């Protein structure tokens, strides 16, 4: 699985430099600006990294690439697990910088945790869809799901308010939500594994 992760990280490196530059610009703008845009922009960068993870699946299946890929010494289960591990590894630099920035500037650190949960949920939702439908057919489903998820979150924040959501997520409820997201991710892994095992190359 290590080789799969290296392959995917090298693929993402080619196409993620723009995201990295954007992230650096956001950091510097917020350091010298009275108004903080960090909380709004970083979740967008995390979502873009989620899309980059899905892009690696596109390159794997491009030009009937799966038959060649699976001649290498790894199982389909390892392939599936590598995509979920990649989705977490790809945002670690953003999370670390965001955490340091929050401690220095005093930005609400709970937003990091909420964004991380949303990111894990989105990745767990999109990966099995992408594996099942393929890059071409899954585009429409991805766009529709993105609009539904983003619209629902925006509506929730407008109706309830960020402060209220934070209060609801405090203490025991945070643990319950976290457990729910982890269980959803585990279920997603099992679904993705079943999809890959049924594929005929």
From TrEMBL:
Pfam families: ABC2_membrane_5
Record keywords: Membrane, Transmembrane, Transmembrane helix
Bilayer-spanning residue ranges: 15-32, 82-104, 111-133, 139-162, 174-196
InterPro entries registered for this protein in UniProt: ABC2_memb-like (IPR025699)
Name assigned to this protein: ABC-2 family transporter protein
Species of the source: Kandleria vitulina
